[in-house]
Amino acid sequence: MHGRLDASTGKRVWHYQTLRHDLWDHDLPVYPNLVTVTRDGKKIDAVAQVTKTGYVFLFDRVTGKPLFEVKDQPVPGSDVSGERASATQPAPSSRRRSRSSSSTRPTRRYRPD
To answer: Which entry of 6, 25, 40, 79 is annotated as an active-site residue?
Structure first.
């Protein structure tokens, strides 16, 4: 779980669940990073959260809105008797872009539109 608290009141401003039912030890490995990104020429204060699976979730620091679309991806269930596993896990979307039209090596980047 990831989120923001109002320091003056201690109340939760927003939160985001980056993992549902941790069956595979995929909890968040490190604290989030405060970053500033540029999107459509506008600077946005953001929060970047890396995961053990190599994803980077990027959130607007004020609203908590993801700066990349997050999609629920199907995941394997559990074979443990009585275990209730989630059928999906959230994953930020990414795009494959080549560096030039003649390039044969696509570049995978996490970059706001």
So the answer is: 25
